[in-house]
Amino acid sequence: MLSRATKVIAAFAGLLSVTACSILGSTAAPEPDYSVNLAEPPFELRDYGELVVVKTAVNDGSRAAFGRLFDYISGANSGAREIAMTAPVLNADTAKGAKIAMTVPVLQTQEGSREMIFVLPDTLTLDSAPAPTDPRVSLARIPPRRVAVVRYSGSMSNRASAEETRLRDWMTSKELTPTGPAEVAGYNPPWTLPSYRRNEVLIPVKKD
């Protein structure tokens, strides 16, 4: 049986072989649908529909938190059945114990108790998504919401605070009222060149 570390390395190697252009910022992973209400690059005002997510606390480091979520989508869920990564099973009848396709972005909250979040494919609901086997991992629903967004490249974490300040200044200029803490979103695998990375800070705002 392959070790968890071997599976992680194999997964990244497989993804790299499928999409070598990810080094330059492209990614084949799907992302949630949204509509853009206002675009003033690098800022946007977006509306998202309901999202089903899997999350874990980042109290023992980002790498450990990412590992727990990666384990969940790799089969550490009810049923614990191994399924080839190249053929994820997403329908309700076979989702238990299945490998789940990873989507982007990976989110981290910026305030209070930090959490890392994977957005699950839109083919899964809170009822049909398999239950995590790790008690530190949980499923959740994010209701439809409007968010203000700023996009940036380079290091996701090192620039997050400065980009959040910049986003809040833009929100003030547009008279947008925040309704929750900031989140940092990463869209690219770790081997992507920093200047080609897509990172975002998102802040939920009050709808008109």
TrEMBL record:
Pfam families: SOUL. Residues 1-28 form the signal peptide. InterPro entries: Reg_factor_effector_dom_sf, SOUL_heme-bd. Keywords: Signal. SUPFAM superfamilies: Probable bacterial effector-binding domain (SSF55136). PANTHER family: HEME-BINDING PROTEIN 2, HEME-BINDING PROTEIN-RELATED. This is SOUL heme-binding protein. It comes from Rhodovulum sulfidophilum (Rhodobacter sulfidophilus).
